[in-house]
């Protein structure tokens, strides 16, 4: 008790002393103005190409004796054709063993190097990555090569992997967000792999081991692969290990190019979930924009892309229609799109959609304030630099922007481009890229109560399906 009283008395004395100094409290409450953003430059890197067409980028980074390896292979769901998730099934089976080592042996080998090994399948790229001690970089390069080039693809593992994916599929197709996403992607990317989000159970259950082996043989090769080595390493040792592990890999096919068309007719899609307390709403469209356009990214961030965005303040903070609205600019290789999504209370479905349209129009009709513009520029530059502040962040950023055809030049110029944005850039991006009459709308919710609300939303009332 004595210690508590003494601490309380001291705290009170400190508080009285501070308060007695004129302006002291006010001075502590006012943060200093932000400094001008510093120019950002990537570390000096080296990129070279093996005789078989595989690219390698070496980036010295940091002072910790560790290195991150990221092998990006230009294949994924873009190569599924009509066999949705065949790429996912192939990637999952590859992780079960390679070069005669099963999954647990590969994990043990990676752990012995101070890290782990993983493989991930996406729309356009499949990545294998490791983060290991610098001394083990050559050995780790060999393990990554083994995973990509020599997967065992065993029949006895296929059904285990398939069962896992079937469970994932069942869970995904039971959630309103996934149901809405499937409908939205199918609407804005018709007849394209980007629009085929989920397979049917029958499709997934029917894929054979021969199909998996054929997918790997057709789509994994040196011409589609870029290896990034980031961290502290012995360059001569790394180059020798890369040549040994990847130099004899067959060249294989060039990456698949399948541009998605832009000017699709907008649609309103309604999916009934009787009795649901919420509606899942998605509003968006294809955007005919080159990857990496900072003005569009900035506009989207202010409109709906971060927690203090306009749409969030409107339908979450002011009106309480939703807890987690979010704007997305998906900068995809074969065609980008913009999307605002939110789970809103069923009784506020129509009003929420009206407010989203209202905020898009406000962005188009009037430039944002100087404070809003500066806040977004600070936010974008800050998150950009933070994203590059680790070996993994550096490797993933380089791989992403190389995939989009932007590369290191984009990263080096990013801070300067963002810092130069004006209020007019925000407004012009919204006016040019987000015409209201091109937006598609998906609503998953209790249509008996929601449809009458949608009939009052001017922008879509005439487009509601029967």
Automatic annotation (TrEMBL):
Domain Peptidase M16 N-terminal: start-end pairs = 86-195
Task: Give start-end of the signal peptide.
Answer: 1-26
Give every Peptidase M16 C-terminal domain span.
208-378
Gene3D superfamilies in the cross-refs: Metalloenzyme, LuxS/M16 peptidase-like
Report if keyword DNA-binding is assigned: no
Q: What keywords appear on the UniProt entry?
A: Signal
Q: Does the keyword ATP-binding apply?
A: no
Q: What is this protein called?
A: Peptidase M16
Phylogenetic lineage: Bacteria, Pseudomonadati, Pseudomonadota, Alphaproteobacteria, Sphingomonadales
């Amino acid at each position: 008790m004595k210690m508590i009283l003494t601490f309380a008395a001291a705290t009170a004395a400190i508080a009285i002393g501070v308060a007695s100094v004129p302006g002291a409290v006010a001075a502590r409450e006012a943060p200093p103005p932000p400094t001008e953003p510093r120019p950002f430059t990537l570390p000096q890197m080296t990129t070279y190409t093996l005789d078989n067409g595989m690219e390698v980028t070496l980036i010295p980074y940091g002072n910790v004796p560790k290195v991150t390896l990221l092998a990006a292979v230009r294949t994924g769901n873009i190569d599924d054709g009509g066999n949705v998730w065949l790429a996912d099934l192939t990637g999952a089976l590859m992780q079960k063993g390679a070069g005669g080592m099963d999954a647990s042996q590969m994990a043990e080998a990676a752990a012995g190097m101070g890290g782990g090994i993983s493989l991930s399948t996406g729309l356009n790229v499949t990545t294998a990555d490791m983060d290991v001690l610098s001394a083990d970089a050559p050995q780790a390069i060999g393990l990554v090569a083994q995973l990509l080039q020599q997967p065992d693809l065993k029949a006895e593992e296929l059904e285990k992997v398939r069962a896992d994916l079937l469970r994932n599929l069942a869970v995904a197709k039971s959630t309103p967000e996934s149901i809405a996403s499937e409908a939205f992607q199918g609407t804005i990317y018709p007849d394209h792999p980007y629009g085929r989000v989920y397979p049917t159970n029958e499709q997934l259950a029917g894929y054979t081991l021969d199909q998996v082996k054929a997918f790997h043989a057709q789509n994994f090769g040196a011409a589609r692969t870029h290896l990034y080595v980031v961290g502290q390493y012995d360059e001569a040792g790394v180059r020798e290990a890369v040549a040994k592990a990847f130099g004899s890999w067959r060249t294989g096919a060039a990456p698949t190019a399948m541009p998605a068309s832009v000017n699709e007719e907008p649609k309103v899609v309604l999916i009934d979930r009787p009795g649901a307390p919420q509606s899942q709403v998605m509003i968006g469209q294809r955007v005919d924009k080159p990857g990496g356009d900072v003005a569009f990214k900035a506009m989207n961030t202010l409109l709906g892309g971060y927690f203090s965005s306009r749409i969030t303040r409107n339908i979450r903070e002011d009106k309480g229609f939703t807890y987690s609205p979010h704007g997305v600019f998906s900068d995809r290789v074969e065609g980008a799109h913009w999307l605002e999504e939110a789970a809103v209370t069923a009784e506020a479905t129509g009003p929420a959609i009206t407010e989203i349209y209202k905020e898009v129009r406000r962005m188009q009709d009037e430039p944002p304030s100087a404070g809003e513009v500066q806040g977004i520029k600070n936010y974008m530059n800050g998150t950009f630099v933070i994203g590059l502040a680790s070996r993994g962040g550096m490797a993933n950023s380089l791989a992403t922007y190389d995939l989009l055809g932007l590369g290191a030049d984009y990263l080096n110029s990013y801070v300067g481009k963002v810092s130069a944005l004006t209020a007019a850039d925000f407004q012009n991006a919204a006016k040019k890229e987000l015409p209201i009459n091109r937006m598609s709308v998906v609503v998953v919710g209790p249509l008996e109560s929601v449809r009458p609300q949608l009939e009052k939303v001017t922008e879509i009332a005439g487009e509601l399906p029967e």
